[in-house]
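Hey,

Quick one before I head out. I ran the complex with nicotinamide-adenine-dinucleotide overnight. Inputs first:
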Amino acid sequence: MPASPKILILGAGGFIGSHLLERILTTTDRQVIGIDIQSSKIEHLLDSERLTFAQLNVHDTRAVTEYIEQADIVISLVALCNPALYNTIPLDVIDINFNRPYELVKVCARMGKWLIHFSTSEIYGRTIASYTGLSYEEQEPKNYLLNEDETPLVLGPISNQRWSYACAKQLLERVLYAFAFEKGLQYSVIRPFNFIGPRMDFIPGVDGEGTPRVLACFMEALLFHKPIRLVDGGLNRRVFTYIDDAVDALMCMLRHPDQAKGHAFNVGNVANEISIADLARKMVATYKDLRPEFSECDFEINVVSGKAFYGEGYEDSDRRVPDIAKARELIGWEPKTGLDRALRNTMRAYIEQYASAAACRKAC
Ligand SMILES: NC(=O)c1ccc[n+]([C@@H]2O[C@H](COP(=O)([O-])OP(=O)(O)OC[C@H]3O[C@@H](n4cnc5c(N)ncnc54)[C@H](O)[C@@H]3O)[C@@H](O)[C@H]2O)c1
């Protein structure tokens, strides 16, 4: 029997990378090479005989190229993907989300490797519906449902540097498409829609500094009894997708390479759409349920402007509802985890990881 293809995961030590690595090592016989600048989220996997882990910066193009040469499939996850960075260090954001993966594309094209690239649902930008002046209830699906191959990608003005990330990721997708068109590159793209799960983001002041993504911001507020801050009232809507379902999508691609190649796939759980304001309220209720000792506490929810929270140049996508027909039809993917379970699992993991650090802070 021919050996299973060897997989290289760039960004193996991150949130998605750690779950993907775990799944591949526990459910397949594949050899994996992992690259990342950090390994704290994959310590439990480093002893695996089928894993070669290299603590490496992707700026070291020569070393990365040597690892690419050894692999058949390259999965690219390395990014700066935290909204608080997009308008504060946009040059670093553009470099790591466009320049570095562009080098990777060239090497994969030259060597004939299948490149699976993690893009983002942010490339859709704002919906057409947001410009109609109609309320959320009045909007027509064709103006907000996001289809991989038909929906226009609508980013805001250059001075709103929030779009640096989305624009870099969008241009990289155009490069992938062009390399396939002109040079026969084998590629696939995943566009994640707000994945959540254990090992997601740091808690400021405990194991990281700055502003993490929204779920970790709200967890910090709950754990440390700070007010939950709703940016611009939390009116924007997102679908939250559980990490196990997200990893399922990647595994479906690996099982169906011929159907996956040459396509971008939305990976999001439409059934889990919620406004950020409702997410905050749902997280308060779930927290009280998971920690009955705080069931009588009041958790303050304050509104803050996007400019005050993120700084100058902030703007946001209003709504992101993925059309997932293509993932269903071509690779047989279907998300299974409802929002209640996804939130409970994620919040339980945060509580287990951080409750002792929070215990020394004031009670309600
Ligand atoms: N998590 C989501 O919901 C989501 C949403 C949209 C897009 N994405 C995309 O999915 C991919 C993975 O996201 P994630 O949530 O796991 O992010 P993450 O930040 O947890 O993982 C990224 C990893 O890249 C590593 N890294 C950063 N710079 C590096 C460098 N110079 N050299 C080597 N490693 C470096 C980091 O150490 C980190 O482990 C990213 O491309 C991101 O843009 C994720």
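Residues 6 and 207 are 33 Å apart (CA to CA).

Talk tomorrow,
K.
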